[in-house]
Design brief:
The protein is of the alpha/beta class and 426 residues long. The chain contains twelve helices and 13 strands.
């Protein structure tokens, strides 16, 4: 389709005058093809409309939070009913207790819950609790893993100092020997081991956790007295109706949650085992909006949908349909693609594409046809999607592969990405 973007361009110009770079953070389109819109006017179900009125089937789902569909009637009704009673009050509403009870009953390793607003809040709290519980300092994380945007974990070190990461040690995901080495390096000062539910690093193929690696992480935590922490902020409730590492039969001591637990209403959570309860009660963490009741009421309604619907089975089935269709279409047009990770959280990268120009070109063609995909970040399916939506995406993919082949000789690397890749190679 022919995209119009005059309203988006005007908003970008106004934003640059009052917001650094006009936009910041993970939703900035600075590293995406020029055709991507920055500003959106509305969202409903599985679709977005940008400020120029262009409609997209959204495979980013707000970078994850849209699990059941934008503006889900029952979840929004629960939030609206609470809004009439109160939201950010001098103390929490009853929904806080109900939400905690639901999460603890759903997640098998959890005996208690704490709430905050962002995934970074939850991961930082987990780090603090691990240190308080053990009286130690060292934290092991996988190289390239994303655990938030605080100074200790941000992927961009601008504005931070070396001391912020002085007690971080790295290992390679799914490499037990590398994990062993990091734990040995920590010695008697190991407080915690962080693990992503699966390897979902940007710009790299995804991989599911190997059970031997997950079991080794549990064994090392038990042997040293450190806490095992699963950062389920991105994948929680998308892989299982439990902590994602339940798929490899491993229970962490702490798990971090966000995005999906209230279908996009702003809340995150830290869940923990009984042995970490005292440490959790000892740290001081808070926020003016952390205990607001509207998001918690939405969370209760969301977890009821988790318990009673076939959302998980549906998103897996639709994801597998999309994956099979794209595999066939890419071969038809003589492209070699890699589709990695869970089918309901797909990542699509092109072979022999070191500067991502081919992936960028294909993604731009998809956006032109009303299908919002991402060239280097994992994507998401939501329960509001239908077979007709997947059919529409595959039809657009067919046309996009065809256009990509026709324009192949004109493809060029994205200037911002090229600069970033160059700096990484130094």
């Amino acid at each position: 389709m022919a995209l119009t973007n005059s309203q988006d361009r005007q908003l970008r110009e106004r934003a640059r005058a009052v917001i650094p770079n006009g936009m910041y953070g993970h939703q900035s389109v600075a590293l995406l093809p020029d055709v991507y819109p920055q500003f959106f006017a509305k969202a409903e179900g599985a679709h977005l409309w940008d400020v120029d009125g262009n409609r997209y089937l959204d495979f980013m789902c707000g970078y994850g939070p849209n699990l059941f569909g934008y503006c889900h009637p029952r979840i929004d009704a629960a939030a609206a009913a609470q809004q009439k009673l109160g939201d950010a009050m001098t103390g929490p509403g009853p929904a806080m207790v109900a939400f905690a009870e639901k999460l603890v009953s759903l997640v098998t390793h959890a005996d208690w819950a704490m709430f905050c607003k962002n995934g970074t809040d939850a991961t930082t709290m987990a780090m603090m609790i691990a240190r308080q519980h053990t009286g130690r300092r060292k934290i092991v994380v996988a190289k390239g893993a994303y655990h938030g945007a605080a100074p200790w974990c941000t992927p961009n070190p601008a504005g931070t100092v070396a001391e912020d990461r002085a007690h971080l040690l790295t290992c390679i995901y799914n490499d037990s020997e590398s994990l062993d080495a990091a734990v040995r390096e920590a010695g008697d000062d190991l407080a915690g081991i962080f693990a992503s539910p699966f390897k979902h690093d940007a710009f790299a193929d995804q991989s599911l956790p190997e059970r031997a690696y997950a079991m080794r992480a549990r064994e090392l935590a038990d042997r040293t007295g450190a806490l095992l922490i699963v950062d389920d902020v991105r994948a929680g409730l998308r892989l299982a109706r439990d902590c994602s590492w339940s798929t490899v039969s491993v229970k962490p001591d702490l798990s971090c949650w966000g995005k999906d637990i209230a279908n996009g209403y702003p809340i995150s959570a830290l869940l923990g085992a009984e042995k970490a309860r005292s440490a959790a009660g000892s740290i001081y963490v808070t926020g003016s909006f952390w205990f607001a009741a509207v998001a918690m009421a939405a969370g209760v309604a969301t977890l009821e949908e988790i318990e009673t619907s076939d959302y998980l089975e549906k998103t897996v089935r639709l994801g597998e349909k999309l994956r099979l269709g794209l595999s066939s279409l890419s071969k038809t047009h003589d492209f070699s693609i890699r589709q990695t990770g869970p089918a309901q959280m797909p990542l699509i990268l092109f072979d022999e594409d070191p500067d991502y120009r081919v992936g960028y070109g294909w993604s731009a063609e998809m956006v032109k046809r009303g299908i919002y995909v991402h060239p280097w970040h994992n994507m998401f399916l939501c329960a509001a999607m239908t077979d007709a939506d997947i059919d529409a995406a595959l039809n657009a993919a067919d046309d996009s592969f065809k256009a990509l082949r026709a324009n192949f000789s004109t493809l060029a690397p994205h200037p911002g990405l090229a600069a970033m890749l160059k700096s990484r190679r130094r």
